[in-house]
Write a structure and sequence with these properties.
- 50% of the residues lie in helices and 4% in strands.
- It is mainly α and 216 residues long.
- It has one domain: Orthogonal Bundle (Fic-like fold), CATH 1.10.3290.10.
- The protein is globular, with a radius of gyration of 25 Å.
């Protein structure tokens, strides 16, 4: 990978991403994003300069790497490294993340590979949070990776709040999943063999009969 005389990133071969991530980001919306990302974790102070700069450096990456994510996470959650050793386990609410060990870094590399291949940012974020590759800072790192993907796909990550945008993405993903699901077989109007619809109706108790039961 090199740079052209104009300073833009130049890459040999096919280019899966929609735009050059060296495109400057507006400071105001970026600060708002960092503020919301912190608040989701209960961090209610104003974003620090280091946090904002860390996001800027991440968004400047043309290709994401595990090293870049580790560098980012080390700034926002120091001394809470990648769970690449056995015994570095985490649990988030009722979700028990995969156990710590070499498989964590391998799985994270696959997630990064998907992010670089112009995959769906919603799916990448879900995969990252299910893995929870770090001891801490996973939510903020995962949201930064989501924003990096959205920015690279020319879909402004800061147009509305993260939670608002992610809510709509979840609904869209759920709708698409339902459309892809096979339709359930329709029940035969005759029911069981030799039984007509009318005979079944006659066997059902009336509303008043059900009301006289145990209230179930």
């Amino acid at each position: 990978m090199g740079r052209s005389s104009q300073g833009n990133v130049r890459r040999e071969g096919p280019q899966p991403r929609a735009q050059d991530l060296s495109t400057p980001l507006d400071w105001g919306p970026l600060v708002s994003f960092v503020r919301e990302s912190n608040a989701i974790e209960g961090i209610l102070r104003e974003p620090t300069t280091n946090e904002i700069r860390a996001h800027e450096r991440l968004f400047e990456k043309f290709q994401m790497t595990v090293a870049a994510l580790c560098e980012f996470q080390a700034i926002i959650a120091p001394d809470k490294p990648l769970r690449a050793r056995e015994g570095l386990n985490v649990r988030v609410g009722s979700h028990i993340a995969p156990p710590g060990g070499p498989a964590i870094e391998k799985a994270l590399r696959q997630i990064v590979k998907r992010a670089n291949s112009n995959a769906d940012a919603w799916e990448t974020h879900i995969a990252f949070e299910m893995l929870h590759p770090f001891l801490d800072g996973n939510g903020r790192t995962g949201r930064a990776l989501w924003a990096w993907q959205m920015h690279g796909q020319d879909r402004s990550p800061f147009a509305i709040s993260f939670l608002h945008r992610f809510y709509y993405q979840t609904l869209a993903h759920h709708s698409a999943t339902r459309l892809r699901a096979p339709a359930a077989p329709k029940a035969s109007p005759q029911g069981t063999e030799g039984e007509s619809p009318k005979s079944r109706e006659e066997q059902q108790p009336s509303d008043s009969g059900r009301a006289q039961g145990n209230g179930g």
